[in-house]
Write a structure and sequence with these properties.
With 191 residues, the chain is of the alpha+beta class. The chain has one domain. The protein has a 4-stranded mixed sheet, sandwiched between helices.
Length: 191
Amino acid sequence: MGPARRQMFFHGTEHCNELDGDSDSIIVWIEPEKHDLVRSLPQLVQPIAEGDADIVILTRSKRSFVETYPAFQVESETQANEVYAEATGLSGFDPMSGPVAFRLSMAKYFVLNRPKKLGLEDTYISHYAPLLAMMDGHKVVPSPEIYFFYPREQREEETALTEAMKTKRKWQLDTLSNAYRTLGAGVTKIS
């Protein structure tokens, strides 16, 4: 998954460079099932547009998270977010939400990211990149809380596959908890 995501970030960067080459261009990474978030893009990118951030991590409203996600996902993602806060010493972040927005100049953290060199799974590039950018002194902030709907069809499908999805979520929780602890140590040294 990591190589495909790096390639996607590379092509997004390439496209922005072809359009105008402006390092103030903003790239947004959203998973396909989170299409409802598109209506809130101005809110998500606002800290970057106003010069207050280099990277923004989506923060879901508690209500939208609890009301629209499967219960087992709420549980595992809440645990992972707690590990992130503990490992980095940063509060208010919701990295498990997934989507991130970043300045074009931050693309190198997404494109050149090689987790295996750090002993990490080569998967969650969009989770690792903000932490690596923070270690280099770049400003990463949580977005304002955004209410968006996780698709009912997605929730129903994942709930019907309860055991398989619980296994996937457990692996994700373990993988990202390890990564947050590994990378978080570098973040706490600079904060």
